[in-house]
Design brief:
Layout (H helix, E strand, L loop, with lengths): L10 E4 L9 H28 L6 H18 L2 H9 L4 E3 H34 L4 H4 L2 H17 L2 H8 L8 E2 L6 H5 L7 H34 L4 H29 L8 H25 L2 H18 L5
Parallel strand pairs: 1-3
Antiparallel strand pairs: 1-2
Helix pairs in contact: 1-2, 1-3, 1-11, 1-12, 2-4, 2-11, 4-6, 4-9, 4-10, 9-10, 10-11
Length: 317
């Protein structure tokens, strides 16, 4: 008997967080608060950088783009997670599942490239300070940002096409908190070794190459900073990189374990935990890391708020 193709399987069931029972409501509240904070925090950083002329520099240009990207990155998964926590019917259509997977990986790849561009910016600023203004021009910044988005959205196309051609038989429960390639491949009723190999090759190229580039950049940055004779000079140089490096380690640390592996079998608990880290935690902590560790940004936020407050208040005579 020939296996049914995907057209006979119109939808999947996202199991999400299984066996949560009576704490489902608490998980919903925590996830909702995290999502609202992520939206407000990243939107605040994006708007402040765009409105404050003092922050119109390459470094903050990339930070604002990262905040803008995080808004869409979280929008691809968290709203559906919230809806599933409230509903007994946790279904998602076949096309909707593929779209969620595509946009999640596109935005994730774009973030990898963007974090790499930010590392290159810091490398030029610290290791080539005399050439920095001439090299890192607004035009180059715009081209680098456009390249990050373009390459990011091109990367997962082949993976999505291969998954869309797989036959899916009767079992349709996705053992994950959102649609993704590994849990989808586990539901296919044919050999998926080609898909696994293609996924591994693409993910390894994107993740490992960008991570290696970032680490090499920071290796050279650290070498340059250690040559600075004054402690104050070293502290100032490191302070401009610390926030970015923390975000890099959190984001890449989780996605490397999740996607750079050449096997179909995986731990459901581990995968759900890692998914929460890179889909919820990283976008949540980005505004905290970039604001709490950046005095310039804090001052700009205060200036923007007070300026708006002065315009809104009536003139006193």
């Amino acid at each position: 008997m020939e296996p049914h193709n995907h057209s006979s399987l119109a939808e999947f069931v996202l199991l999400g967080f299984p066996r949560v029972g009576h704490i489902r409501g608490w998980i919903f509240v925590l996830l909702l608060l995290a999502y609202l904070f992520t939206i407000c925090g990243n939107m605040l950083i994006f708007l402040v950088i765009r409105l404050d002329a003092a922050l119109h520099t390459p470094m903050y240009h990339f930070v604002s783009i990262l905040s803008f990207l995080e808004l869409w990155y979280t929008a691809t998964t968290i709203p559906k997670m919230l809806a599933n926590l409230l509903s007994d019917k946790k279904t998602i259509s076949f096309s909707g599942c593929l779209l969620q997977t595509y946009f999640f990986h596109s935005l994730g790849a774009s973030e990898c490239y963007l974090l790499t561009a930010m590392a290159y910016d810091r490398y030029l600023a610290i290791c080539r300070p005399l050439h920095y203004p001439a090299v890192m021009t607004p035009m180059l910044c715009a081209k680098m940002a456009a390249g990050c988005w373009t390459c990011g959205f091109l990367c997962p196309i082949s993976e999505v096409i291969l998954v869309s051609q797989l036959p899916f038989c009767g079992y349709n429960e996705i053992q994950h908190i959102f649609c993704d390639f590994p849990p989808l491949l586990s539901l296919a009723c044919k050999d998926t070794s080609t898909n696994v190999l293609v996924d591994f090759a693409i993910n390894a190229f994107i993740i490992l190459i960008t991570f290696l580039f970032i680490m090499v950049s920071y290796g050279r940055i650290i070498g340059t900073v250690l040559q600075i004779k004054t402690i104050a000079g070293r502290k100032k140089a490191f302070s401009t990189c610390a926030s970015h490096l923390i975000v890099v380690l959190i984001f890449f640390g989780s996605i490397i374990f999740m996607y750079v592996r050449l096997k179909e079998s995986y731990s459901l608990t581990l995968d759900r935990t890692l998914a929460v880290v890179y889909s919820v935690l990283t976008p949540l902590v980005n505004p905290i890391i970039y604001s709490l560790r950046n005095k310039e940004l804090i001052k700009a936020i205060k200036r923007t708020i007070f300026r708006k407050g002065e315009r809104a208040s009536p003139t006193q005579h």
